[in-house]
Amino acid sequence: MSWFKNTWFRDPNEEILFINDTAVRIRAGMMLAIPLFMALTLFDVAYTSPWIVNTNSIEDTYEVNDASQIIYSGEMTRRTYDYTVQTALLFYGLFELLAGMFVWTSRLSPTIHLSTYLARNKRAEWKPLTPKRFAWSLGITLVTLCLVFFNPDVFANWVNALFGAELLPTTYNYIPYWFPVNLVWVCIALMWFEAVLGFCLGCKIHSLLVWMGIIKEPCYACHNIDWDEIRRKHEVT
């Protein structure tokens, strides 16, 4: 039951925390469901008809247009969109990203417990938590932008109330559809790379910033030496 006590941490009491990357990849595969659902929602909003046609009301007008096409008349209503489910899922995704950053919050995450359980019989790959925190911070930014798109009036009211001026409109969505549509595909690609290929772009960016000296970090590899494995190799030779 150590997987339940420690979740995906090698040792929660370590000064520099390491997590099981196998469990991280399993969790990324589970969380991939959220951006996929958002992609379907955005496709429906951006690329399908905003009109609902009452087929029983369609009648032939016995007229044609300039292209010699028959003109019909009918009753149509404009679709309205309710993003309550999407907003709830995005807030849950935001919670999951935040939960993975600390030991005590990780115990509140269902996906961390489930992914750790699924990885219990697989060989653990210990990687430092700090680069993952940086990557998840980028994910938090993307999720926040999606929340603003789905709730533009709420965000506009907060901004306008904070600054005491009408800086953002509250009667229409000021974020163009192409922005979240492209953003959600970026999220899907990054999570797919993490889950399937084990490639974490945020971690690579973090490493680049450390190499450039912008971020000061210790040598994590020095803290990740498997002395037991080294001892076993010497015993074999």
Which short descriptors sum up this protein?
237 residues, alpha+beta, two-stranded antiparallel ribbon, 11 helices, 57% helix, membrane, transmembrane helix, DUF4395 domain-containing protein, transmembrane
Architecture overview:
With 237 residues, the protein is an alpha+beta fold. It has one domain. Helix content is 57%, strand content 12%. The strands form 2 sheets. A two-stranded antiparallel sheet has the order 1-4. Strand 2 and strand 3 form a beta hairpin. Helix 7 packs across helix 8. This is DUF4395 domain-containing protein. InterPro entries: DUF4395 (IPR025508). Keywords: Membrane, Transmembrane, Transmembrane helix.
Give the number of DSSP strands. Answer: 4
Find the structural class using helix and strand composition.
Answer: alpha+beta
H/E element string? HEHHEEHHHEHHHHH
Strand count, sense and barrel status of the largest sheet are: 2 strands, antiparallel
Helices, by number, come to: 11
Order of neighbouring strands in the sheet with most strands:
1-4
- The portion of residues forming beta strands comes to 5-15%
Protein name: DUF4395 domain-containing protein
InterPro entries: DUF4395
Domain DUF4395: 42-209
Keywords: Membrane, Transmembrane, Transmembrane helix
